[in-house]
Amino acid sequence: MPRPARFRPALSRRARLGAATVAALVTGTAVFGVGQATAEHSIPRTDKEIPNLTQVQDKIKAYYGDTVTADGEHYASPRSNYAHQVRGIETKARGYLSKALAGHGRAGKAKPAIVLDIDDTTLLTYNYELQVGFHFTEESQDKYLAHTDMDPVFGMNRLVNWAHDKGAEVFFLTGRKEAQRDWSVRNLKNVGYGVPLDRRHVYLKDKEHPPPYLPCGSTCSTIEYKSGTRKHIESLGYDIVANFGDQYSDLRGGAGNRTFKMPNPMYYLP
């Protein structure tokens, strides 16, 4: 997850607050669609092309309706613009799924499924991001996940449980590493995801022992890993009627009838 000596350029697997996104946040314009963080590789010619990072952080906090507890923990507000946007996406998804799942009642048809990313699709990383100053490291993520449950993305636990009750098999597909499985499953369960959370339903990235259905093995890009895993799920006899993710790399590569992009201005995963 993200940046500095309070935003230094990200050299890890997550590119944080690309220049184009930063400029959009400061000026209030959209970049390639609402909620998409983008990686900008052009070199600024002068300092005037570089927005003030403190202002960017303030914009992000305002969007999430930053709420601080007495012990200094940061949480997004259910009345925030972020929460409002998420609910709009969930309303569209529920309407679509009502029809899509009803159409799978015929005998012999593949069982319907939905696939969801975890970070900022089903679990909200906002408190973690504020705690580490938008500077992701595997070490800080491990420490946080081992002892802290992230809140569910507003309403997603209810949407997922409803879809499961309507007949959809639910699969979680995340870039989190295999060593974080127990923490991730605990968190999903504790915040109300009442669906199967065994190894057959929760896919994490295992670089040490990559599954044989991924030809790219331990070198998979996010798109290769996620699309390859979705194709594997389809090979098990499922029809992925919907795929949910906060990054476009969660959604690209095929294997899925419809995609739903969740908002996330905090980081970019190519």
Structure summarized in a few sentences:
The protein has nine helices and seven strands.
Q: Order of strands across the widest beta sheet?
A: 5-4-3-6-7
What is the percentage of strand-forming residues?
5-15%
Q: Would you list the SSEs in sequence order as H and E?
A: HHEEHEHHHEHEHEHE
Give unreliable regions as ranges: 1-13, 17-39
Averaged pLDDT: 87
**Global shape:** globular
Helical residue percent band: 25-40%
Structure annotation, total helices: 9
Instruction: Assign the structural class, choosing from mainly alpha, mainly beta, alpha/beta, alpha+beta, or little secondary structure.
Output: alpha/beta
Count of DSSP strands: 7
Largest sheet: 5 strands, parallel
Q: What's the gyration radius in Å?
A: 19 Å
Distance between the termini: 13 Å
Topology, please?
Blueprint: H1 19-27, H2 53-64, E1 67-68, E2 74-75, H3 81-102, E3 111-116, H4 126-131, H5 138-147, H6 156-165, E4 169-177, H7 181-190, E5 202-205, H8 222-235, E6 238-245, H9 248-251, E7 259-261
Parallel strand pairs: 3-4, 3-6, 4-5, 6-7
Antiparallel strand pairs: 1-2
Q: How would you sum up this structure, described in words?
A:
The protein has 9 helices and 7 strands, in the order H-H-E-E-H-E-H-H-H-E-H-E-H-E-H-E. It is of the alpha/beta class and 270 residues long. The strands form 2 sheets. A 5-stranded parallel sheet has the order 5-4-3-6-7, with helices on both faces. Strands 1-2 form a two-stranded antiparallel ribbon. Helix 7 links the parallel strand 4 and strand 5.
